[in-house]
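User: Some background: our group keeps a shared notebook of sequences we're curious about, and every so often someone picks one and asks for a predicted structure to add to the entry. Today it's my turn. The entry only has the sequence so far, pasted here. Could you supply the structure so I can complete it?
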Amino acid sequence: PGAEYWLTISFALAQDQLWAEAGHEVAWEQFKLPVHTPQKPVINLAKLPSLDMKTRDDKRTITGPDFALEFTHGRIVSYTYKGVTLLADGPALNVWRAPTENDRTAIQFEGLVPAEVWRSVGLDRIEEKPTSVTVTELKSGAIRIAAEMFASAPDVDGGFRCENEYTILGDGTILLETRITPQPKLGSFFLPRVGWTMTVPGGFETMTWYGRGPHETYPDRKLGGKLAIHSGSVDEQYFPYIVPEDNGNKTDVRWVTLTNADGLGLRVEAFPTFSVSAHHYTAADFTAAMHTIDLTRRDDITLNIDHAMQGLGNGSCGPGVLDEYMLNPHEYRWRVAIRPVG
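Assistant: Of course. Here's the predicted structure to add to the notebook entry:
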């Protein structure tokens, strides 16, 4: 139920050549098969364990048999499963990417350089401020937290209205739906990305995802990545561009997990797809560094789940991002499921 079926056709060398050995893949293509599968079974909420919620000042703690979830001002500040912390912070709105060489040199946005425009409206220093938090205990036993935020830079008038709705189920699943609306004062420009960033403690070093890979892909640089279940260490997702920039993004991802040596960890599922990246560095680390030697590896992991990512274009030596790969500043809505694994 719910499965996809793909046919992959690969062409490889039958004999050694001067330029490659036998077995070297020359070309490949994938075709999604028209196979009808039944939908995944609907969760029977009545059979899930019950939840307990305690409130103290602005902090709410929701617990089930194997997990505990803490909210402060409508934001997750801790998520533990079987006594192990899966999330130390997040998700938080993320509309900034460390500028690529193309972002730093392309002439777009009415003759302006993209990275300079993004900085001028404060996308590199967004801060979230809660405006309202509503908690509802549903008849099914689930708990829903609706949190409204206003996200902006301290020195910029405009910003984003951000509405997050968390539905917590008895098995530890978090269904998260987000809507962001750019405010008129922010002006008219294109966004580098729209999504969330969150902090996962170090130790969950195996990243596995069903999407394109294994190398980095972007919306206008993705057809070289095979759709498959890929896996590797978090460190392997980092690509050492001499001048650090955004890197390691994966496109068309259906789900991703970060797990430790015992196979326990965090899983994020898409409806239907998202982009994802995970690093021992933050976007601010990549932005501030002038050279790879300026980067200091963090113990924690920064996990980025993006509803949309702007294309890269060829701006450092050619045309900028094509129109179909630009992100207009309009309302965006998306949802995911976050749950423990192991």
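Suggested note for the entry: The chain has a mean pLDDT of 94. The two ends are 21 Å apart (CA to CA).
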